[in-house]
Amino acid sequence: MQSMCSQENYPSITQVYSDAPMNYCGFNLRNNLFVAPMAGVTDRPFRQLCKQLGAGLAVSEMVTSNSLLYGSAKTRRRADHAGEAAPTVVQIAGADPHMMADAARYNVQRGAQIIDINMGCPAKKVCNVMAGSALLQNEELVDRILEAVVNSVPQTPVTLKIRTGWSISTKNAPAILKIAESAGVQALTIHGRTRCQQYHGQAEYDTIAAVKKLARIPVIANGDIDTPQKAAAVLRQTNADALMIGRAAQGRPWLFREIEHYLATGSLLDPPSINEIQSILQGHLNDLYSFYGKESGCRMARKHIGWYTRGLPGSAAFRRYMNQLTCTSAQQQAAREFFARLKEAPHKQLADEEVVVGGMAPSSRWHGNTNMEATV
């Protein structure tokens, strides 16, 4: 297979990308860059932020098809799209055609404008109940689920997300495409790995390219798209209609504008400044606190703070300290002090032990002294 880094025999960027809005399932989007659904990550604050920073579409976290859980706080939050720019996309998961149809109707009644069906999640707890990517092993059941969901919401577009297959020896994405098209599914996203690969190794794009050649509906490529150059290479190799980006956007929501700019111009944007990273992070924290409440918001914010500060000088020690904090004011203050220290020495490569918060040495403030939180 030709290297993804090679541009030989590939069309130019302008031949695979247009800066005109993309029409997707009847909606005009800013571009063809989508935020992948990620459990515990793509909540409303994250989706809105990614859209503000260049994403054309963002899919909700996976929502269960089990009606017994509709009233749970987690399910209600996952389906919360209040104030979010259209289109609102809700991803549903399950293995029973009737329950999936009910879930589609339920979410459309509550504002979903596109229903996405999850047949790509590799998590053991999902696959153990024959949902997610486990469904790829049963094409007859795939057919029944897709037909039931499409027929249950005839005025709402239904899309599908899959992997290339269950295992290397059973790649059946082309067969799933045909089933999906026959059922009336309007777009197909493919993660370039099998379920058995989980997230190991490198995503392969040959299967996505093969499916795209056969498809009468839009095909979205997903997997390992983490730089503007990689985005362009995947578009060239697969000829996909759009790209879906997941893990690479964690702590880097500006990745979407960087890719958008590169695909449109062929040039790279300057990376965000320390000031801008701090501003985006602080705004994200405030949205998380508002969305989840202070206690839950503080817990949810920890992983995001870790992602935003990943790779910055002193970030490892900072994260160790920050993960001990249990109130939002302490969390915000610690973040402000961390970035202030970075700005004080912008040209110095700071080691973890050199970045201090509140003027205190790491040994007293960052290494197990949880009582220090009250002084922040």
Short description:
The chain has 376 residues and is α/β, with parallel strands linked by helices. It has helices at 13-16, 44-52, 73-78, 97-109, 124-127, 139-152, 173-183, 206-214, 228-238, 255-265, 274-292, 294-309, 315-322, 328-344, 362-365; strands at 22-24, 27-29, 33-35, 57-64, 89-93, 114-119, 158-165, 187-194, 219-222, 242-245.
Outline the structure in words.
- The protein is of the alpha/beta class.
- 41% of the residues lie in helices and 14% in strands.
- The protein folds into 2 domains: 13-265, Alpha-Beta Barrel (TIM Barrel), CATH 3.20.20.70; 274-375, no CATH class.
- The protein has helices at 13-16, 44-52, 73-78, 97-109, 124-127, 139-152, 173-183, 206-214, 228-238, 255-265, 274-292, 294-309, 315-322, 328-344, 362-365; strands at 22-24, 27-29, 33-35, 57-64, 89-93, 114-119, 158-165, 187-194, 219-222, 242-245.
- Strands 3-4-5-6-7-8-9-10 form an 8-stranded parallel barrel, surrounded by 7 helices.
- Helix 3 links the parallel strand 4 and strand 5.
- Helix 4 packs parallel to helix 6.
- The longest helix has 19 residues, at 274-292.
- The chain starts with 12 loop residues before the first helix and ends in an 11-residue tail after the last helix.
